[in-house]
Design goal:
The protein has 159 residues and is mainly alpha-helical. It has one domain. It contains five helices and two strands. It has a two-stranded antiparallel ribbon with strand order 1-2. A hairpin with a 2-residue loop joins strand 1 and strand 2. Helix 1 runs antiparallel to helix 2, helix 2 packs parallel to helix 5 and helix 4 packs antiparallel against helix 5. The longest helix has 37 residues. The radius of gyration is 20 Å and the shape is elongated. It starts with a helix and ends in a 10-residue tail after the last helix.
Length: 159
């Protein structure tokens, strides 16, 4: 049952990533078309695209971490025997989880400062709303790495 729940969660993540990418492409194409043919564009398209790319990057990092396709230095663990390879894996995953946790914490602080004196991101949306990506994205990354520290390292990557 847990396995099916994880599969559904991964499908939802993939759907969210694909939808976000599709929306960003459509906004960019609409902006290009409007500027080329009508001499004007959507005033909200640039800030939404910029923050959309940031959301896409952090959510994409979640997908990469899920399948262990993120950037990793694994030269030393390849030389270690299985027991020490497992220890090195756990330490590296926990260290990464701590860094991501700290980034989420500081992202939350940055978000709170923005909430104290909010500006307008686009009409009807406060400037702190798109900044939710920092505590959410890094918090989920930290959780994913912490869970990964408890699992067996993947063999195909040398860990």
């Amino acid at each position: 049952m847990l396995r099916r729940l994880l599969v559904r969660l991964h499908q939802a993540e993939d759907l969210l990533l694909a939808t976000l990418l599709g929306v960003l492409v459509l906004v960019a194409l609409a902006q290009i078309g409007l500027r080329m043919f009508f001499g004007s564009g959507l005033e909200w398209a640039e800030p939404v695209s910029q923050m959309g790319v940031l959301w896409l990057a952090l959510l994409g990092a979640l997908g990469a971490a899920r399948s262990h396709r993120h950037i990793a230095v694994d030269a030393l663990p390849r030389l270690l025997p299985p027991f020490w390879r497992r220890i090195a894996w756990a330490i590296s995953q926990l260290a990464t989880a701590v860094v991501c946790g700290l980034l989420a914490w500081y992202g939350w602080g940055m978000l709170q400062m923005e909430r104290e004196a909010p500006g307008v991101f686009v009409n009807g949306v406060s400037s702190w709303v798109p900044m939710l990506v920092f505590p959410i994205g890094f918090g989920l990354l930290g959780l994913r790495f912490a869970i990964s520290a408890l699992l067996t390292p993947p063999e195909h990557e040398g860990l």
